[in-house]
Structures are given as C-alpha cells and as structure tokens.
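Box 3.1 A note on notation
Throughout this textbook, protein chains are presented in two layers. The first layer is the amino acid sequence; the second is a token string describing backbone geometry. Keep the layers aligned when reading.
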Amino acid sequence: MSKYESYTLFSGGAQGAENQFGKLAEYYGLAEVNYTFEGHRIERTRGVRVLTNEELTRKDVSLTYVAKLLNRKFTNAEKMRKVLQTIMHQVESGHEVFVVGTIQEDGTVKGGTGWGAEFAKICNKDLYVFGQVKNCWFKWEKGAWISVETPVITDRHFTGTGTRFLEENGKIALEELFARSFK
C-alpha cells in the first residue's frame, strides 16, 4: 500500500507523454484515470475510463473556436472532437495541470495538447508546461509564461498530458517531477 494512493493522475493514456505520466503514477503507487472513448487506441491499460457518448457530448466544443484559438486546422473532425472532449474531462478532473510539449511564439502549446493547456487557462487551473525545445519548465501566471526551476505536484488530483512525441529530455523532466513530488 502506497502512502500516495490518495493521489490520482488524470490523463488520456496515449503514447508519449501520457503513457510516461501513467508509468510514473503506477511506479509511485498513485491512482490513475485514463479517459478515452469507444474505438480509440491508447497505450495505458490501467485505470481506463471509457466515456459514454452522453459524457462526451457534455464537453462539446466548437472545432472552429478551438482551431481559431490555437491557430491551426483540424482534420478528421469527428475523431478530433472526441479527443478534445476527453482532454476537457482530464483537465476538469485535475486541480493542477502538467503538460509536456512545445510553447509556440503565440503563447499556445503545439498540437492537440494545446487545447488541454488552453482549457486549463480558461478553467484557471495551475498550469505547468515542460518545453522540450527550450528544455525547461514554464508556469502560466498572470497571462504569461514564466520559467520555473522545479515544479512539484502538490494537489491530490492532477492532470498529466502532452505530446505523443516524447523526447529524452521530456521523459527525464517527468521522472524528476515525480521524484521531487513523491520522495
């Protein structure tokens, strides 16, 4: 029995950053909830929570709005809509949000991961992003990204999401985050 079993990681269990978050949660004895939907392939098998169509619909969001917010276009609209809806469930469930990705010039995070970061901003959650390109952690504070040395997971309900393309420095950043948080 882990002394950290009252902590829960909320994620999506996808390849890359989410898979790594899950592996670390399991290693440290944390609970894990991986939101997904019928027919969506994910890497993690622990703590899988398949959302119903009704639950997905409750988090419906305009793809036009998200595309405009993130300055990008979405292909395969139906699948993308469901992915964005599951990300909203992840972010809503956690009180702190940790992301691995790339912060772009316009302040958004690259890819679908960017929606998780933007939704965390909208929900006024504590938001941390490890920028793999800049090789450092950033916190969203007062409308801007500020670099932070060593963030720590402090809330029992936290969200971990990010890029499918996890690089070695991103993997190390997550290992160090968990080691600092769950000594």
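The mean pLDDT is 93. Helices lie at 17-27, 53-57, 63-70, 77-93, 113-122, 168-181.
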